[in-house]
Amino acid sequence: MLRRMDVRAYNRDAWDRHVIQGNRWTVPVSPELIAAARRGEWSIVLTPQKPVPRTWFPDLRGLDVLALASGGGQQGPILAAAGANITVFDNSPSQLEQDRKVAAREGLVLSTVEGDMADLTRFGAGSFDLIVHPCANVFAPAVRPVWREAFRVLRRGGALLSGFCDPVLLALDQERVEREGVLVIKHAVPYSDLTSGDDASRAAYLAKGEPLEFGHSLQDQIGGQCDAGFVIAGFYDDVFGGADPVSRMLSCFHATRAVKP
Question: Span 2-259: which CATH code?
Answer without folding.
Answer: 3.40.50.150
